[in-house]
Amino acid sequence: MLIVQLFNQTFAKVEKALPRLARLGASHVLISPPQKSHSSRSWWARYQPVDFRRIEGPLGNLQQLQSLCRAAHNKGLTVVVDAVIHHLSNESRYLHSRGQHIVAAQYPHFSTPDLRGVHQLGKGRGLPILNTDSPWVRSQLRDYLHWLHSLGVGGFRFDSAKHLDPHLFPYLLSGLPPLLAFGELVYARPQDFPPAYWQSMKAYDFPLAHSIKRAFAPGGDLGSLVTPTALWGPRSIPFVNHHDLIRNRSGFAHFRVDDLRDRQLAHVYLLGRAEGIPLVYGNDLRYAEVKAGMQFHRHCLGQGLEWVCVTRSLLAWKRGSRALAAINKGAQPATLETRLEAGVYQNLVSGRSFPLQGALTLAGRGAVLLVREG
Question: For the chain, how many structural domains are there in total?
């Protein structure tokens, strides 16, 4: 399984991208929140819901979302929706507040008693928080998710999950078949994740992202990525990049690999691993390492991992006996013993095929993803 996030793209544009995503090996496509939201056309407005009973806005309408879901199903892909269920829009037409106090609120299906206060995010007006202890609010959110599923949606990314009661999610998802659900739980250490969340969802692997950042930083140790601090196993949605790391660089600086070339190399590590369900940010599909990594990930599903070279600047591992990933963070070329079966191998990064028997020389600041032909 592999997720591609096509952030803030219209449903029609996402639908056009499906054939390419299928060829690259994606299994799921994550789209931005589809419900009626703040009237601004800016990306952040999609994260301020107004009406969970209407699919409309700059991304498209109900019919276009249904068309996307049908097309995805026909291509063997699953649509995952970014679900914003923690708060609502702070537009003055709906909300009158003073600081952290809500004076009055009126939305199509919620009003002042359905809110529990204001969530302050940096500067500017805060966002009104839904009172998820209210049976009415809970039923509306559950109906929204079930309605999306009836339209063909097969998964959810829960925005601001860290701020929601983990015991809410079993109720919201009850009655639905097993599907991909994961949350935005921003913790740098695995032990900080509240265990109750694992009953209902996976999570962004922020601990691994922090490990990757440290390893690829100047003077960092790639060898630390053999046993990184990470969620591991089926709970993990690992990533190198996603929309929050781009749109809020200061807030997520703890997890973002700063240098572009290092981010490209980090994707080789991300997609060459055997753990979790990796997520790729759509804008990164322009890079050869990312596209090759997706193909390598699909090729190596079910194969074990064996480390063959581990130093501070060089990391290489086999997936089975006929595939290898290697990263050279250093500036100078490096030679390593691959331990692969002899044969003709294709480097998915460059597209070049060549005979290989034993050693391989890796360019400085370079990476390879090798699979045996035939």
Answer: 1
Q: Which residue type occupies 14?
A: V
Cα 364 to Cα 36, 91, 331, 359, distances in angstroms: 49, 52, 4, 16
268 within 8 A of 327, measured Cβ to Cβ: yes
Domain hosting residue 117, numbered range = 3-302
What DSSP line would sit under 267-332, residue for residue? HHHHHH-SSS--EEEGGGGGSHHHHHHHHHHHHTTT--EEEEEE-SSEEEEEETTSEEEEEE-SSS
Residue 73 lies in a domain: yes
Q: What is the three-class DSSP state of 140? A: helix
Span 352-372, average pLDDT = 96
What residues does 31 pair with on adjacent strands?
A: 6, 81
Query: How would you classify the pairing of strands 115-119 and 127-130?
Result: antiparallel
Domain containing residue 25: CATH number: 3.20.20.80
pTM listed for this prediction: 0.96
Is residue 309 in some structural domain? no
Three-state DSSP state, 159: coil
307 in Cβ contact with 325 (< 8 Å): no
Q: What is the pLDDT of residues 44-78, one digit of tens each?
A: 999 999 999 999 999 999 999 999 999 999 999 99
Mean of all residue pLDDT scores within the chain: 96
Flag whether 348 is in a domain: no
264, containing H or E segment? helix 260-272
| Closest listed residue to residue 70, CA positions, set 155, 187, 154, 178 | 154
Counting beta carbons within 10 angstroms of the beta carbon of residue 238, is it exposed (0 to 12), middle (13 to 18) or buried (19 or more)? buried
Could you report the per-residue pLDDT of 192-235, keeping only the tens digit for each? 999 999 999 999 999 999 999 999 999 999 999 999 999 988 99
> For 316-346, what is the HEC assignment?
EEEECCCEEEEEECCCCCEEEECCCCCEEEE
- Cα 85 to Cα 319: distance, rounded to the nearest angstrom: 40
Indicate whether 134 belongs to any domain.
Answer: yes
